[in-house]
Amino acid sequence: GRRPRRGGHAWKATAAPLPPQPFPRAPLGRRGARGGAMAVVLATGGFDSRLRLWEATTGICTRSIRITDSQVNCLAISRDKRFLASGGNPAIHVFDVGSSTDAPMLTYDGHTSNVMSVGFQRDGKWMFSCSEDNTVKIWDLRAPTCQRDYNCGRRVNSCVLHPNQGTLISGDDGGSVRMWDLRRDACVHELVPIENTPIRAISMANDASMLAAASHSSDMFVWTPDDSAEEGYTALVRFKATTKYLLDCAVSPDARTIATCGSDAHVRLWSVEEGFQETAKFTGHTGWVWDLVWSADAGYLVSASADHTAKLWDVRTGQMIRNYSGHSLAITAVALNDIA
To answer: Which of 89, 185, 160 is nearest to 131 (CA)?
Structure first.
């Protein structure tokens, strides 16, 4: 197939303000009005090979699932809150959120090394994953079969689905951010901010206005879509997010803030409107912070740490308002779905 285009950029620190969005702050952790699916699904997993589901408002663990074959590397919750996917080494297990059984509904065995990201297509028709076996895969949710298999040539550390539901974006150990066009069944663009410097995490704004990548160099790289650019994106900013190891990044649902975390035990917020200046630092964890996730209204963050806890943060006040304790080893993954 056609060789993807690679992009190099001159990085700058400017950004256009983005419009504010509604800021509902509905109670977390209550069942729907008709007693159906949980209004909020919060899940954690880690080195103790346990998945835990939590009542977000109280911090009470409502369900604990033993993963028998490996640790938990990553988690994802389907948009309709029916399914929870767990990626390990090397299997992917999919659980029914409403069930009381520990047995997975589906298990995918196609990867041959650690699964680093999992996610669901918006309508729940299929799911995707990436792995240290160098591949990005697409899976049929009706049966444990692999539909697509893309080889990146290097270990893949992160993968997200573009809001258009037609492009997968991967970040790998070779320093490449690749765009996989599912209609063309090929990689159509490749961004390489620093050659041979691993990309640790990828995040994209819900409105597709911004693509962010966390690098092993501890730098954040941010691009904006640009149809006139050969590689499809224009560099917006590069900034140093920590003096230690940078492990994850997440663009807020309103695209106004980027959250980062790493080995310094802090969660940091960077304002898009203020030129990506650091506007907050959440302290409270005592170990590496491996993963973080925003609430749908951008009012809360949940972080997962090697200190065996996950924490719920109020973004407006910077206060830690709930501590989720029960894991016996490091928590490496957290997933939250509180979409109304």
So the answer is: 89
Q: Report the alpha-carbon distance of residue 69 to residue 63 in Å, rounded.
A: 19
Please say whether the beta carbons of 338 and 326 come within 8 A: no
Residue 142's pLDDT band (boundaries 50, 70, 90)? Answer: confident
Mean pLDDT of the chain: 91
Fill in the amino acid letter for 66.
R
Is residue 144 helix, strand or coil?
coil
Distance CA 90, CA 263 (A): 25
Characterize 26-65 residue by residue with b for buried, 16 or more Cβ atoms within 10 angstroms of its Cβ, and e for exposed.
eebbeeeeeeeebbbbbbbbbbbbbbbbbbbeebebebeb
Token code pair at residue 238: 């590069």
Six token digits for residue 59: 């911090």
Mean pLDDT of 60-81: 97
